[in-house]
Specification:
267 residues, TIM Barrel, 8-stranded parallel β-barrel
């Protein structure tokens, strides 16, 4: 197993050491200004969501360029567990992939294989953005298998039941829970605080601890209480909010404050 001290990708290193990192989520669209604002905020990583958005591979490339050099590690949630989807995302400069809808070990193995060059996987070789268009081809090929972070999503009851088998797959650096999808699979959509979901989260975190791999969770509404609980529960790869929530809540807060002041003046 590669030791974390040999890895330059800070998020991959943190995953292997089970250290806390904070990231956020880009979902509104391929708007580089939004990516630049979030990148300048100081997050450890930013995930570009190509599953639940209209962001295609060209949009991802645009956002990755906006983030590049500003600090955060560039992650992508690919739209599906597909060899070409994963390959293309990595060729466009993704430093880590988050793969949705992983329900068992076989699906996890497929994701890992797509992200690794032979002999560890089936990723294809080429010149591209990830290796400075061939300038750093040899160096990239020699280090990519160690540097790329592979995170699989746990979003279903089936995945929770198979969590130990999924985490046993070599090359899986951690898991990431989609709380709303998970609640839906249990028939209690949106009830992320429900005892059933909390029990499932506890099982996931404990399994990650036993397998020495990182557990991740998306806190859509990142209150101080929610963040503290998430860390206490054993989750370390933590997404704080999402661009659309920040925009919506910021707008509401400003408008509600203005309306409140206006109302007081009328009285």
């Amino acid at each position: 197993m590669i030791k974390s001290t040999q890895i330059n990708n800070p998020v991959k290193k943190a995953l292997l050491e089970r250290q806390v990192t904070f990231g956020s989520w880009l979902q509104l669209g391929p708007y580089p200004g939004v990516a630049e604002v979030l990148a300048n905020a100081g997050y450890d990583w930013l995930a570009i969501d190509c599953e639940h958005s209209d962001i295609d591979i060209e949009g991802f490339s645009t956002l990755a360029r906006a983030i590049h050099g500003r600090g955060p590690t560039v992650m992508i949630r690919v739209k599906e567990n597909d060899v070409m989807e994963i390959r293309q995302a990595l060729d466009m400069g993704a430093q880590g992939i988050i793969v949705p809808l992983i329900n068992n070990a076989n699906e996890a193995e497929k994701a890992v294989a797509a992200a690794k060059y032979p002999p560890c996987g089936i990723r294809g070789f080429c010149f591209g953005r990830m290796n400075n268009y061939g300038e750093d081809f040899v160096e990239y090929v020699q280090t990519a298998n160690n540097e790329i972070a592979v995170i699989v999503m746990i979003e279903s009851k089936e995945a929770v039941e198979n969590i130990d088998e999924i985490l046993s797959v070599d090359g899986v650096d951690g898991v990431f829970v989609g709380p709303y999808d998970l609640s839906g699979s249990y028939g209690i959509t949106g009830q992320t605080s429900h005892k059933v979901i909390q029990t499932a989260l506890k099982k996931i975190a404990e399994s990650c601890r036993q397998h020495n791999k990182s557990a991740g969770l998306h806190i859509v509404y990142p209150t101080e209480q929610a963040i503290e609980k998430t860390i206490s529960d054993g989750f370390t790869f933590i997404a704080l909010g999402v661009d659309m929530v920040f925009l919506r809540e910021g707008c509401k807060t400003a408008l509600n404050s203005a309306k409140s002041i206006t109302l007081k003046k009328r009285k």
